[in-house]
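pasting for the record
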Amino acid sequence: MKIIKNSIVFLVALLFAVACNPGIDPITHVDPGADASAPVINIIFPLEGTQIQRPEAISSINIQFEATDDIELGSVTVSINGVEIASYKNFKDYRRVVDNLLYDKVTNGNHTLSIKATDLQGKSTTKSVKFVKSPPYIPKYPGEIFYMPFDGDYMDMISFKNATVAGTPGFANQSIKGPKSYAGATGSYLTFPADGLKNTAFSAVFWVKINAVPDRAGILVMGPPDAANPTAANNRKSGFRFFRENAGGKQRFKLNTGNGTADTWIDGGTKADVDPAAGNWVNMAFTVSSSEAVVYIDGQLVQKATITGIDWTDCNILSIMSGAPRFTGWNHNSDLSLMDELRIFNKALSQTEIQNIISEETGKNFTYTPKYSGEIFYMPFEDNYLELVSQTNANKVGTPGFSAGKVGKAYSGATGSYLTFPTTTLQGNQFSAVFWMKINATPDRAGILVMGPEDKANANYPATQNNRKSGFRFFRENAGGKQRFKLNAGNGTADSWFDGGAAADVDPATGNWQHFGFTISGAQATVYINGEIVSQGAFTGINWTGCDVLSIMSGVPRFTEWGHFSDLSLMDELRLFNKALTQDEVKTIMNSEK
């Protein structure tokens, strides 16, 4: 009886021990001879290539790992650069060890972390990752005052301050740069002190990979409290709110700013829509100055608005990846998307500066994805003469400049000045061009777009040329104080005129931006002004013989005999196509750029 009683007591104690240690495998008899596999190691952090940047010469790293065996672990050792820093031989769970090991002797330079696990049969596995401790981060861009790369922590690498964590956000093992990115979670976000971030001019640039559930969320918010609605805050009189909302299955990104008394909306409509189904990393940027607020997506301007500056009254915290706690009245709560490479600036970045950041962070030149069917050329004139589809710079002649444009900046003409561009990729059976102009009627005639052949037969060649048998010439001329816009095209043997007469006249005195377009197919050519047909006629198809140069904002060098020299007007958003656009397509492009 005594033996039975003792056995019962032992079994009860054993069951109690297992129950008090949840997660430990229940004890079962296993034949040691069945141990066929070596241990398995999972290094959770650091990942291969992790970079640690801290102000101190010697800092710490939190090593996270898991080692498992199919039968029983015998030992686990952890080494840095070949020197053992920890060992494990006694395990609560004899098949598995999970640990967070703080190592506080990390010096600047490259390091190798190695973890070795050995089972009772002597079979072992070693896994290693390399990481680096770099000197403190030095801002890479003019005006950069905040940088959070989300590579395993929530530290601003310029101030070395950590954000305050609300809820349980995490990190994803995917990113635009570095080993990790911020991973949103329900009810989770970061806050950061706004001291030092509040300036007359402000810009933010970052990447997101969108999770459209929930279908609206706050992304970056620096706003004031809302004493009248503390649980559903929506005081928009100061600060800013950058957020997203469902738009027919896509996500529309919007900015709202306050000047101290009222708020302004910077809503690009469909231009600011992103399809989450694509699963791409998308670059977001917005800038605020004393006169203007602008939103960019993937380096392209999607909306701008005139403002009277931003007011920072009571804006003492920056919320990251949620509208909480200052912008929740319309349910712009936590964003479950991924975020990476968040940078804040004390200046209003130009589009070129934003595109340069995109290029640096992706490791390749900024590339433009054509927005419209058949688009083969796009020159937005944002402080440069770069054609974005081919990534080719136009050749500048003279001293053209830049001015405020229809969208962002615009080409600003000057006497004796124009651009030329190679035509290799521009010549097809069909051709279209669309663009905006703000007309300067002095001189009273000028070339605008010309792709024509040399005129060597002209007695005054090369100064005077006017061979119209191939290519096209789009230009303007005085018509009773207005400017009449005309197209001429050659089929290889003769030229055709598309002159709308008074219907193609524009009054420069209005000072308005005007939208122009022309299309050429194998059957007809059409000229549009502000989306309306002003001239149309039959045409047997364009011939490109000898048309090796496109001139922009001048007839020089191929169309000069009648005085169509440099245009001193403004031009913006020049796009060329390898198709004959329909009127609806012309209007769609025009309306998207208003």
